[in-house]
Amino acid sequence: MVGASILAANIGIAVAIVLLLIIVLDINPAVSLIVGALYMGIASGLGLNETVASIGAGFGDLMQGIGIPIIFGIMIGMLLARCGGATQIATTLTAAVPSRYVPYALGLSGAIVAVPVFFDVAFLVLIPMVIALWQETDLSYPVVIGSLVIGAAGAHTFVPPTPNPLAAPELLEFGLGEMMVAGLVVGFPAVALAIAVYVRVVERLWDREDDIAEIPFEEADDARTDRPSFVASLLPIATPIFLILLQTTAEAVTGEPNVYLDFLGSRIIALLAGLVIAIGVYVRTVGPDDLSDAFSDATRPAGLVLTITGAGGAFGYVIQETQAADALVELIGVSGDGVVIVLLAFAIGLVMRVSQGSGTVAGITAMTIMGGVETTVAGSAIALASLSGGMSIGHINDSGFWVVTELSGLEVTGGLKTYTLSEAILSAFGLVGAIGIAVVA
C-alpha cells in the first residue's frame, strides 16, 4: 500500500476524473464512477483483481440495503402520480399553507418523516408529493427539492433514533436524553435557518436549462376529477412510515428487538405494505386496466437510479478498502480543547464525508476518534460537531447524492446545487449549534 500523502492525492484525482467524465465528456455517471473507482484502487496499491472485487462488493452491499426499497418507493410514487393522489396531497397542503411558507412546511415534513426512518426512504416516499406540490405553486424547482433535503437530512443527522445520533452517547459516554435534547434544540432551528439561507443562495446559482434533465412523476392528470381522497392518497406514504416508526419506538422503549415488529418495520416489508395500498388506491380510482403500464413506467427510472446509486456505492467502498480516509485522518492529528476540539471533530467528519461518501461512516468514525480524546467539552457538542461534519459535503461518491439527483430529474450540476449545497449550509448551522453547546455547557 502507498503512503498517506499519495492516498490523499489519489482521492482528489479520482474525484476529478469522475467529474471530468460526467460534466465535460458527458459520460454516463455510472460508467464514470466505475472508472474513478478503478483508478483509486489500482493507483493506491489495492491490486488489479482486488480492485475489481471491491467494486463488485461495494455495489452489491449497497443494493442489498436499499435496492428493493428504491424500486418499491418509485412504484409508490408512480402509482400516486398517475392516479392523481400526489396532486391531491399537494393541493390540500397548498391550500393550508401560504406560498411563502411552503419551503419551511416541506422541511418540517421531511424532518418528521426522517426521524424514524433513513434519509433515502424519506426522500423516496415524499419526492412525488413534493414535485406535485411544486406544480401547484410559483416556487422554483430547486427550492422545493433543497427544502426537502434539508429537513430530511437534519432529522436524520441530529435526532435519535436514527443510527448516528443513537450511537453517539455510547461512543462519547454521555446520556441518550442529552443527545435527544441537543438534537432537537439544535436540529430543528438549524433546518429553518438553513432553508432561509438556501432559498436565497440557490436562486442566484440556478440555471433551468443546464441543471434539470427531465422532471419525473409528472404523469398525473391535473384535470382529473376522480382523484383519491387526501386520506387515501396519504395512506401509501403513511403506512411504511408508521411501520418503521413502530419498530424503532418499540425497540427503544423495551430495549429488546421484537421479531415480528422487526419484520414489519424493515424497509422492504414496510415499503411493500405501502405499495400494496398504493395499488389498491390506484385500482379503485383508475381501474385495473392501466396498472401494468404504470409498473412498466416505474421500472425505467428505477433501473437508472439503481445503476448509478450502486456505482456510487462501489466508488465509496474502494476508497474505504484503500484506507485513504484513515490516512487523511492521521495527517490531521488529534489535539486541543474547548472550541478547538469541536472544530476538530467537525473537520474529521468533513474529511471522512468528502473522501468516502457515506455520512453514516463519516459521523461514526469522527465520534469514534473523538471518543479517545481527553476533554471537558460536553459529549453532545462533540457529537453534533462530528455529525455535522459527517453531513457536510455530499457529492458524487455519496449514494444519497444520486438518489436525490436522479429521482428529482436533475443534471449533476443540479444535484450539486440542491443536495450538496443545502446539506453544506445545514452542516454549518449544526456546527454553530455545537459550538454554542460547548460554550454554554
- Please compute the radius of gyration using only Cα atoms: 21 Å
| Helicity level | over 70%
Q: What is the makeup of the main sheet?
A: none
Low-confidence stretches: 219-223
Number of strands: 0
Number of helical segments with 4 or more residues: 20
Structural class: mainly alpha
- As a percent range, the share of strand residues is under 5%
Number of domains: 1
Structure commentary:
It comes from Natrinema salifodinae. This is Gluconate:H+ symporter, GntP family/Gnt-I system low-affinity gluconate transporter. Keywords: Membrane, Transmembrane, Transmembrane helix. The protein is mostly helical and 441 residues long. The protein has one domain (4-440). 79% of the residues lie in helices and 0% in strands. It has helices at residues 4-24, 29-43, 48-83, 85-96, 102-114, 119-135, 141-158, 163-172, 176-205, 208-211, 230-254, 259-264, 267-285, 291-321, 324-332, 339-356, 359-370, 379-391, 399-407, 412-440. Helix 3 crosses helix 6 (119-135), helix 7 (141-158) packs across helix 20 (412-440) and helix 8 packs across helix 18. The longest helix is centred in the N-terminal third of the chain and has 36 residues, at 48-83. The chain is globular and about 65 Å long. The termini are far apart.
